[in-house]
Amino acid sequence: MIAIEPFRKNHMDLWANFRQKLWPEHSLEDMTIDVQHIFEGKKLVGDEKTYEGFHLLKDDEPIGFIEVSLRDSIDWYDASPIAYIEGWFVEQSERKKSFGAKLVKHAEEWAQEQGCDYLASDLEKDNRISLLAHQRLGFTIVDENVKEYLLIKEIE
Length: 156
Hints:
The chain is of the alpha+beta class. Helices cover 30% and strands 35% of the residues. The protein has one domain: Gcn5-related N-acetyltransferase (GNAT) (Aminopeptidase), CATH 3.40.630. It starts with a strand and ends with a strand.
């Protein structure tokens, strides 16, 4: 059975662990502090109105997560408000089984509930796997900088 649920305060360790897997250059302690800040309503990226996280369970085992923010705008695309994928991860052993797509679909539904028509994301240029995953799900590169591709998907 597959379920996607919002992170709650009793999931803080789970969320921090997922974040550390996605961003291994950051310590687990830093990830835990970030999760605490999210639950306290503190801003992580500076301009988000809301920040939410969801985890995917397969047979009651957590295998992935997605976190999204709601922003008034972003400087590289003209849409307001806009939802933004801040992080997205599926365990290596569970990839290529549509779990990532289910998480993005859930993020789209959340974004629509917030009044958004578009979902934005970014990724490091050297992350070819992430680029292919985004493109398979309908994201289009609309801008780039030295380090990142900036992508948009119209929510259907």
